[in-house]
Amino acid sequence: MSKNNSEYLIERNDNVYEVVIGLEVHAQVTSNSKLFSSSSTKFGAEPNTQVSLVDAAFPGMLPVINEFCVKQAIKTGIGLKAKINSKSVFDRKNYFYADLPQGYQISQYKYPIVGEGNVILDMPEGQKQVGIERLHLEQDAGKSIHDVDPSNTLVDLNRSGVALMEIVSKPDLRSPDEVNAYIKKLRSIMRYLGTCDGNMQEGSLRADVNVSVRIKGSTDLGTRCEIKNVNSIKFMQMAIIYEANRQVDLIEEGEEIDQETRLFDTKKNETRSMRSKEDAHDYRYFPDPDLLPLEITDEFIDQLKSEIPELPDDKKKRFIDEFKISPYEATILVSDIDTAQYFEEVVAKMGKNRDMKLAVNWITGELFAVLNNKNIEIAHSPISAKNLAKLINLIKNGTISGKIAKTVFELMMDGDIDPQIIVEEKGLKQQSDPKALEALIDKIINDNREKAIEYKQGKEKLFGFFVGQAMKASGGKANPQLINEILKKKL
Amino acid sequence: MSEITSLTLYELIKNIKEKKISSNEAAKSFVDRAEKSKKINAYVTENFENCLKLSKEFDDKPNFDLKLPGIPIAVKDLFCTNEVRTTAGSNILNNFVPTYESTVTQNIWNEGGILLGKLNCDEFAMGSSNETSFFGNVQNPIAEDLVPGGSSGGSSAALVANLTPVTIGTDTGGSIRQPASFTGTVGLKPTYGSCSRYGIVAFASSLDQAGPMSKDVKDSSILLEVISSFDKKDSTSIDFKRNNYSSELTRNIKGLKIGIPKEYRVDGMPDEIEKLWKKGIEYAKDCGAEIMDISLPHTSYALPTYYIVAPAEASSNLARYDGVKYGLRSSGKNLIDMYEKTRSEGFGEEVKRRVMIGTYVLSSGYYDAYYLKAQKVRQLIKQDFDQAYNKVDAILTPSTPSSAFKIGEKSNDPVSMYLNDIFTVPVNLAGLPGISIPAGVDKNNYPLGLQIIGKPFDEQTVLNIAYSMEEKINYKNNITDWWMK
C-alpha cells in the first residue's frame, strides 16, 4: 500500500533534518548507431564486435554527429518542457582510462543542447514540480572487465561512443519516495517519446546522486556528496538513506562534511569515499575542434514538436475527462506507455456499450496480477487487448458472470484464445432464461420445503442457501441477478 | 634516366599521356634515384616494390583520362595509408599499419597516382626543421647539413632532390610553406576546410590542413584540384564550389590589389629578407598588380596565440596514444605505470614539451588566462584579415624570417625555432590559403621564399598571382647531387 505521505525526515536529539537530493541521470539514447559513428548499439553482442575505427580512436579518425541522436535529445527536452538551445557546443572532457580510447570523452559542458525544464511528480499528498537544470549529449565509455583474467584487465569497446543524455535535476528532491517517483516519471516520459528504453538492468538508465542534509526549515544548502553511478531505484534509495544518516551523524558530532565523490556498496549497504574534492580530476574541458557548434533552427524544433506523442501528464488528464476514471486510476494507467496503449485499445475494442469500471478493474486487477506473477511486460501480455475487451463485453452484456469470467480468463491465457469460443465450447454461457430458471428453482424449493418454511418464518439467512443451491444446480451458469429475483418472488 | 625525375608533374603527365614514358619507367627512375639518395633520409617507409608492380599494372591497362595517370608520388608520413606503415615520425607509432586510407591520399590514388613511399617529418608534425623525427634528420639537398625545414621536411627534400614529381604535406603553422621556402620549391596551404582531415594523424585539429608541394606553381594547381574535396567524414570540411585550378590558371593578374602589411617588418629581420620582399613587390607590379599598404594590427600576437592553441589541441589529440589499443606499449606494473612508460618512451622531447604546455594552458585556473584569451585573439587576427580584404585581393609577405639553418643550430633553442613560423602562423589562425614560392637566394645561395595569402576559398587568385610572379622571378635551384658523391 502506498503511504499517504512521502516525507522523509531524520530526527536526532532535538534536531529534525531534511535531505536535499539532486540527480544526474544518464539515459542511453534509443538509436541504432552511436553518437559519432555508425557502429551498432545493440545490447549483449560479443565483446568488441561493434567497434568502428572512430570508436577505437585510431589515428586520423574524426567524429561525425549522428543527427538522429540530436533529434532524440531535443524530443526529450520538449518532453521535459525545457528550453531547447539554438546553439550548443561539444567539448572534450580529458582523462586517461583504458576503456576511454580517445583519452577524452566528447560531452557538452558550457553550452548544453537543452536548458531548464521541469517534471511533475504525482505524490500521495499531491503534485510536486521538480526542476530540470539541463540535458546534454555525451559519449559513453567502453567497459573494463576485471574479473575474467586474473592478471589482466580486459576492455570491451562495444559501448564506447554510445549516445547518452545526461539529465541534471535541480536539488528539488526531498525523500527516497520522491526519487523513486522522479526516476519513474523520467523513464515514463522517455519511453513515451521513444528516446530511451529506460532499461535499468541493461544499464540504459543510471544516476549520480547528490545528497546533502540540513535542519528542516533552513534554506541554505549543506555540503553535498555525490554518489556515483547507481543503477537501480532501490539502490538509489538505500544509498540516500545511508548517506543522509551518515551526514546527520557527522553534524551531530560537530564534524564537517567533506565534499567528495562516494561509491555505494550494494552488498554492505553503505557509501564509501572514492575521491575528495582535492583529488578531483581536472578534466581540462575545451570545445572539440573536430566538431562544429550545433546550430538548431526554430523550424527544426517545430518539426520535432509536431512529432511528439501525447505525454503522460496530458494523457492522464484526458483519461480522467474522457473516460471518467479516477485520478488514481489514471495515474496507474498512464505511468507506462505500453499499459496506456493497452488500456486505450481495450477501450476502443469494447465499442459503444463500454464499461470503464470493468476495464480498469480487469487490467489493474487480474491482468496486472498475472503479469507480475509471470514477470511479463504488458507489451507481451498473454491476453491481447482485443480479447480482454471481448471478455469484458461478455460480462457487461450478461453472457457470463464475473465469476465465470475469471475461469474464462484463465483459459484465455493458453494462446490468447477468443473468450467467445471458450464460452461456447465449454458451455459456460449464463442461464438467463427466466422460465428454465423458475423450473429449476421450483424444484429446489420443493426438495427443501422445510428450509423454505423456516425462511418464511423469518430465518432470512437461508436466502443465501437457496442461491447457492440454484447456482450449484445450474453448474454456476445461472444469472445470479435473475436467481435473486425469482427466489424472492417464489419464497 | 635522370631526365624523368627532373620533369615537372605537368611534363611527366604529358609524356605519359603521349606514351613517351611509361608509368613503370617513371616509377623505376624515382626508385633508382631514391636508392642512391639514402643519405637524404627522406623516406621513413619505402613502398618501392609495390609501386613498381602497380605502375606495371597501370601500363597494362592505362587510363589516360585520369588527372595523375600512373604518376608515382611519395607522401608525408602523416597521411594514413592502407596497409602501409604510418608513423607520424614517432616511435609511438613505429609499428602502426593502418587498415584505412586518408581521404586526401585516396583522392590521389583515385586519379591514378601510385604510392612511392612515406616521407619523413617532424614527430606529429611538431617542428620546423625535421629534427624532431624519431627517424632522424633529413638533409636539405640544397647543401649538406642544412635542414630542409619542417615539419614536412622529408617532403620538401624529396621534391627538390627529384625523388618524387610532387608531394603532399600538412601545414598547421607553416609546415608546408616554410620547408618549401627552405628548399626553393612551391608549397600551398589551402583554406581550412578545403582538404579533408580524415585519416591524417591529428596535430592541432583547428589548424591542420593538407596541401600540395611541387616544383612549380602549375603542378600545385594540378595536385590541389585532385586533393581538395568535400568530405562528410570530416565535420570541418566545407562544401564550396571548387575550381578546376589548373585549367583556370592564368598569368593575367592585371588590376589585382595586393596588400603589403607593415606589421610583417619585424625587428631583427635580416636585410636580405627585406630586400627580397621589396623585389617581390616590384615583380608583382611588373605583373600588373596594384600594390597597397595595409595593416594587420594583431600580427605580433599571432605566434603566442598559436603556441597556446596548437599545443592545447595537441595535448588532447595525442591522449589516444596510450599503449592500450595500437602502437608502442611498454610494460608497466599497472595501468598508470604502463601509460607513463609508454608515453615516456614513445614520445620525443618536443612532443612532450607541447603536450605539457597544452595541458597547462587548459588546466582549471589557467584556461581563461591562456586558452580562452588565445581564442579571442585568434578572432581579432581573423578580423584583421577580413578588414584588409575589403581593400585588397591578396597579401604579399616573406615566407620565413630567414633561410634554412644548419642541423643542430636551433635544436636546443625552442623559442628561436618557433620564431621561424612568424609569417606563416597568422594564416593558419585565420584559416586562409597561403602559398610560398621561391623568390631568390641569400648570401649563402640558400633559397628564400615569398608568401602570397588569399581570401578564404580563393586559392585560384593565390595560384594566379604566384604563377604570374613565378615567371618574372624565374628562380632555378642548383642541385649538385652532392649526397651521391
Tell me what you see in this structure:
The complex is a heterodimer of chains A (491) and B (485). Chain A has 491 residues and is an alpha+beta fold. Chain A is built from 15 helices and 16 strands. In chain A, the strands form four sheets. In chain A, strands 1, 2, 6, 7, 10, 11, 12, 13 and 14 form a nine-stranded mixed β-sheet that branches. In chain A, β12, α3 and β13 form a beta-alpha-beta unit. Chain A is elongated. The model of chain A has no long low-confidence stretch (mean pLDDT 93). Chain B has one domain: Amidase signature (AS) domain (Amidase signature (AS) enzymes). Chain B has 16 helices and eleven strands. The longest helix of chain B is centred in the C-terminal third of the chain and has 21 residues. The two termini of chain B are 18 Å apart. Classes of the chains: A alpha+beta (491), B alpha/beta (485). Chains A and B meet through loops of A and α10 of B.
Features:
heterodimer, A: 491 residues, alpha+beta, Arc Repressor Mutant, subunit A, 3 domains, 9-stranded mixed β-sheet, elongated, B: 485 residues, alpha/beta, Amidase signature (AS) enzymes, 11-stranded mixed β-sheet
Summarize the model shown:
The complex is a heterodimer of chains A (491) and B (485). Chain A is of the alpha+beta class and 491 residues long. Chain A has helices at residues 67-79, 176-193, 233-252, 298-306, 312-323, 327-334, 337-350, 356-374, 385-396, 402-412, 419-425, 434-447, 449-456, 462-473, 480-490, and strands at 9-12, 15-28, 87-88, 91-94, 104-107, 117-123, 126-139, 143-145, 154-156, 163-169, 205-215, 225-230, 260-265, 270-276, 286-287, 294-295.
CATH class of chain B: Alpha Beta
Structural class of chain B: alpha/beta
Shape of chain A: elongated
Gap between N and C termini of chain B: 18 Å
Q: Please, how many domains of chain B?
A: 1
Average pLDDT rating of chain A: 93
Looking at CATH, which topology of chain B would you report?
Answer: Amidase signature (AS) enzymes
* Biggest sheet, spatial arrangement of strands of chain B: 1-3-2-4-6-5-10-11-9-7-8
Strand content of chain A: 15-25%
Rg over alpha carbons of chain A: 30 Å
Topology, number of strands of chain A: 16
The poorly predicted ranges of chain B are: none
- Largest sheet of chain B, if any? 11 strands, mixed
